[in-house]
Amino acid sequence: MQIHMVRIDLKTPGLHFFATPARANGKFYSMTVSNFVRTYHPLLAINASAFGPVTDREGDEQDLVGLSVSNGVKQSQYKVGYAYLTISKANHVNLNDGSVKPDLVNTETAVSGFSLILRDGVNLSSNGDETINPRTAVGLSHDGRFLFFVAVDGRQPGYSMGATMSDLAQLFLLVGATTAINLDGGGSTTMVKLGRDGLPHQMNIPIEWGHPGQERPVANHLGVYVDEH
Questions:
Q1: Strand ranges of the sheet holding 73-76, from the earlier edge strand across to the other edge
Q2: How do residues 7-28 score in pLDDT, each as one tens digit?
Q3: Which residues of 185-195 are buried (b: 16+ CB within 10 A; e: fewer)?
């Protein structure tokens, strides 16, 4: 199991987050995480919400599943049963299982996922998929100070087969996260950083249509920025 994790200190000066905005027509269009980094220049980005239809082409229209907020503006509606992550302007993070409608007052960024896999230190994996697959997930420490981005590679025999929900929950507990959300995974799982050369660099090895290193164009991304002072 190959795990790629970034710990983000939410008290970092100049830190802020950004989710993919819809186009002027209110629609989302497929884009790889690398091209999201190339277009919007975050220091780090991961794939986020579920979507459909899946396509291997960039620029195809896609429907986003669940809540999305970008720059304080709601881009996609909350959907009952789909967990979500909200981030305020002050970088207060909330992870919700999707059973209640979100209060978006002061929310700057939000993305949706499939389910919570960890809540207050309790493993909720029995509520989710226990197959072994590539996974993208986000965890939050008990004191709300640290956010963890995780991408687990999978479907690559001899390198990494993937993780179950239980694996993810245990991983977050090991690093000090007590609440965590499972985002879109499988062929969508991708983590990309902005290199010193100004270009996107894959941190993991995504797999699309059985091709290691090939990224799936997705509808929604979550980027991290730190403004210079």
A1: 73-76, 68-70, 107-112, 84-88, 93-96
A2: 999 999 999 999 999 998 999 9
A3: bbbbbbbbbbe
Token pair 């730190």 is found at 226
Residue-wise pLDDT for 36-88, tens only, equals 999 999 999 999 999 999 999 999 999 999 999 999 999 999 999 999 999 99
CA distance 88 to 107: 4
Q: How many other CB atoms sit within 10 Å of the CB of residue 202?
A: 18
Which residue, chain included where needed, has tokens 């975050």? 42
Q: What angle do CA 69, 173, 162 make, to 5 degrees?
A: 75
Q: Are 161 and 14 in contact (CB under 8 A)?
A: no
Ramachandran region, residue 158 (left: φ > 0; alpha: ψ -120 to 50; beta: rest):
left
The overall pTM is greater than 0.90: yes
Q: Is the peptide bond before 157 cis (omega within 30 degrees of 0)?
A: no
In angstroms, rounded to a whole number, what is the distance separating the alpha carbons of residues 55 and 66?
19
